[in-house]
Specification:
mainly alpha; about 450 residues; 2 strands; Ferritin
Length: about 450
């Protein structure tokens, strides 16, 4: 293949590159006609949602608060517009790797600043009410778990009534046996009988106290469920979420009081103290047998009764301690949250809203990369071509028109000086031309 053919192929490739570059430039010229307007619309939209987010953070609704929210949202809109305008113009124009790296770092830092000052407020405006309702729903679940746990512990304590009744019944049965003379050998209601009846009476009183707590436990649990139902309704009712949050907070305070009441209604501490006193506080009656052997039998029987009493008391104490060792309900405290705080706390539940809030601020970044790629393609298409090869017909006509205007201003060109006419050559006799010498005769 000859060198001329190779040069022709390269020239055609360059021509194709120039044509592609001109086509891309035409597209960019058309896109530039509305890119600024589109960027302005995005900035204003972000500013509007930022205003809504800031308004949810301000406690007051006066004129000063409105002015502050407008000022902040305006600053955000202007900042977003100016920042992305800089990036759209400068990033595609730079060519060195160092310059692009620096602008890339600046763009990343600016994007983080935009997310910090605008995007999270946009997310609060988009999903703030839903996030607050999510917080209310989560709090209801926590209160329900605490109420059910407190009720379960209270019912477990009430179950100690059966243990107390069993011990009380055992002492009553022993007292009946003693009345027949089956224990000490002395029939009647003597000293041993009175000791057994004394402890049976104490257990009967304890059993009555436990029974009195049962209606209180049931009433507290029923009232708590009623409050929970109202709190669940508040999480989904239409209307302002702020007003619903106020009523929700009042209901939460009442429910917390009921949960505390249920914890106090547990009879396990009462049974534990009664079991400790059961063996420790025994009033021994006077032995009433008429014979020494009878009094000795009564004393031995009372000693055996006290041992049985200590064993039963230990059993009751362990049962009460097992109830008290149960995992108590979790302390739940309702903390009102603003829309912005709620959307951050429950961000995982509102990923689409966060994506939309960030996208409206960072969408121009995609345009920056598109412009950078397009400008790189234009420069590559013009590589190796001279300036005269890249001129379009319109540019060439403009250049010719400008040149004519310059010539018209400069005036017509000066004619060159005239020269003395030279005499014509005469033919030589032998066919050669002879030019006469200047200043000499023939």
């Amino acid at each position: 293949m000859s060198q001329d053919q190779t040069d022709t192929r390269l020239t055609r490739a360059e021509a194709r590159g120039v044509r592609a570059a001109r086509e891309l430039e035409g597209h960019l010229t058309w896109l530039d006609s509305f890119s600024g307007t589109a960027l302005g619309v995005l900035s204003v939209a972000s500013g509007i949602y930022t205003y809504l987010g800031v308004s949810s953070l301000l406690d007051e609704n006066g004129a000063m608060s409105v002015f502050a929210a407008i000022a902040y949202s305006t600053a955000v809109s202007v900042g977003i517009f100016v920042f992305w305008s800089y990036m759209l113009r400068l990033f595609p124009a730079v060519r060195t790797t160092r310059a692009r790296t620096g602008l890339m770092a600046a763009m990343g830092l600016g994007s983080l600043a935009i997310v910090a000052m605008s995007s999270w407020l946009n997310a609060a405006a988009l999903a703030g009410s839903a996030a607050v309702e999510q917080h209310l729903a989560e709090t209801v679940q926590d209160y329900q778990a605490a109420l059910e746990r407190a009720h379960e512990i209270a019912l477990t304590g009430q179950a100690l009534e059966r243990d107390v009744a069993r011990v009380r019944q055992s002492f009553e049965d022993l007292s009946d046996l003693e009345a027949e003379g089956a224990l000490s050998g002395l029939a009647g209601r003597g000293a041993v009988f009175r000791v057994l009846r004394q402890k049976a009476a104490e257990l009967t009183a304890l059993e009555a106290q436990i029974a009195e707590q049962t209606p209180l436990v049931d009433t507290a649990f029923t009232e708590g469920n009623t409050i929970l139902s109202r709190m669940r309704a508040l999480t989904v009712e239409p209307g302002s979420v702020e007003a619903r949050s106020v009523e929700f907070s009042e209901a939460a305070v009442r429910l917390q009081g009921l949960i505390t009441q249920l914890r106090q209604l547990s009879v396990a501490p009462l049974v534990e103290r009664a079991a400790q006193d059961l063996a420790a506080s025994v009033v021994l009656p006077e032995l009433d047998s008429t014979t020494a052997q009878g009094r000795a039998d009564q004393s031995a029987t009372i000693t055996s009764v006290l041992e049985v009493l200590a064993q039963r008391a230990a059993t009751l104490e362990r049962a009460a301690q097992n109830v008290q060792s149960l995992q108590p309900p979790t302390d739940v405290t309702y903390t009102p949250l603003s829309a912005a705080d709620a959307v951050i706390l429950y961000a995982r539940n509102f990923v689409p809203s966060w994506a939309g809030a960030i996208a409206i601020d960072l969408l121009p970044m995609v345009l920056v990369f598109i412009l950078a790629i397009t400008h790189a393609a234009i420069r590559q298409g013009r590589e190796g071509a001279g300036v005269e090869d890249t001129l379009t017909l319109a540019e060439l006509r403009a250049a010719v028109t400008a040149l004519r205007e310059v010539e018209a201003v400069a005036g017509p060109p000066t004619a060159p000086p005239a020269h003395t006419a030279q005499p014509a050559a005469t033919p030589h006799p032998e066919g050669e031309e002879v030019t006469p010498l200047k200043g000499k005769s023939a």
